[in-house]
Amino acid sequence: MQTITFVLAGTMLAATPLLIAALGELIAEKSGILNLSVEGMMALGAAIGFIVVMETGSYWLAFLAGGLVSTLLAALFGAVVLLALGNQVATGLAVGILGVGLAALIGKPYESKTVPPMPRMPIPFLSDIPVIGPGLFNHVVLVYLAPLAALGLWWLFRYSKLGLIIRAVGESPEASHAIGHNVMLVRLLAVLAGGFLAGVAGAFISVASTTLWSDGMIAGRGWIVVALVVFGTWRVGRVMIGAYLFGIASIAELLVQSTGIGVPSQLLTSIPYVATIVAIALLSMDGRRIRLNAPVSLGRVYREAQ
To answer: Are 70 and 41 in contact (CB under 8 A)?
Structure first.
């Protein structure tokens, strides 16, 4: 029973930053922008969020600061790909490396320091349910807000005018421009929203999940986020399910170690990344589904007609 509780709690904690960042990446990709700099944005958000908690003690201010500083990095990415018409893949890689480097530089004085755990908010009655209650309903607030944000984004894409505009811009920027939509503005705001959520996700890892700062602590989660959007075929519900599945894979190392099975730690650490490769490989076998759901203009340079 304790193992079940541990798996549920660990999955929720590991999946939350993946889900938050994946929702932001989904917004950007729905508008037609492929942002491969998520790793750097999460790393920079983690560093700034940790520093803010160390200096002020405010966790919510840390989330805000982490999100805002990553938004600035997203603005740089957006300026290059939208205004200078830079290649989205190359620019994303460059900005991502910049973010990781800045995080290492800024966080150097705080290396290996820790902060107190963020206070939990048990949900009354539900957290008292045996076994599943402590695992699912005894977490920090952001763990509960993440699936609610996913639900809100599903509604936005499906029923709101703003969501329809984002989807239209991602499908055909030329047609959207012809009917009067500002394609550049829509895409820039989508990229900024994605950057903000990536920064919040990074801050969550450093101040609510691991409660310490260490260079390289994001450890490829940004790439898992990008893979999650493809794994979920650009559908909010599937992306959310994928995030929790990858959350289970992320805690597999601790789960196996708790059983006493002698497996090399390097092999256990690689489980989430192996799962990513396998998931993408299986999905790629069904090219029809990818073509059906992927935004048509994803990754393409768009030059606005004068």
So the answer is: yes
- The count of residues in the chain is 306
* Sign, Cα dihedral of 129, 130, 131, 134: positive
DSSP 8-state code for residue 114: B
pLDDT bracket for residue 247 (50, 70, 90): confident
Read off the pLDDT of residues 3-55 as tens digits, 9 standing for 90 and up.
788 888 888 999 999 999 999 999 999 999 999 999 999 999 999 999 999 99
Q: Is residue 128 in a domain?
A: no
Q: Could you tell me if residue 177 is inside a domain?
A: yes
Confidence (pLDDT) at 260: 63
Cβ within 8 Å of residue 62, ≥6 positions away:
48, 49, 50, 52, 53, 56, 203, 207
Phi and psi at residue 172, in whole multiples of 5°?
-150, 95
Range of the domain at 245: 14-111+147-293
Q: What is the dihedral of CA 86, 80, 222, 30, to 10 degrees?
A: -80
CA distance 132 to 162: 38
Task: Quickly count: other Cβ atoms within 10 Å of residue 72's Cβ.
Answer: 15
Please state, in angstroms and rounded to a whole number, the distance separating the CA atoms of residues 122 and 67.
25
Instruction: Give residue 300's identity as a one-letter amino acid code.
Output: R
Distances (CA, A) of 140 to 136, 173, 203, 218, 292: 11, 40, 13, 20, 37
- pLDDT at 203 (0 to 100): 96
Tell me if 254 is assigned to some domain. Answer: yes
Closest CA to 237 of 158, 132, 143: 158
- Helix H or strand E encompassing 139: strand 138-139
Q: What is the pLDDT of residues 159-204, one digit of tens each?
A: 999 999 999 999 999 999 999 999 999 999 999 999 999 999 999 9
Residue 257 pLDDT exceeds 70: no
In the chain, the number of structural domains is 1
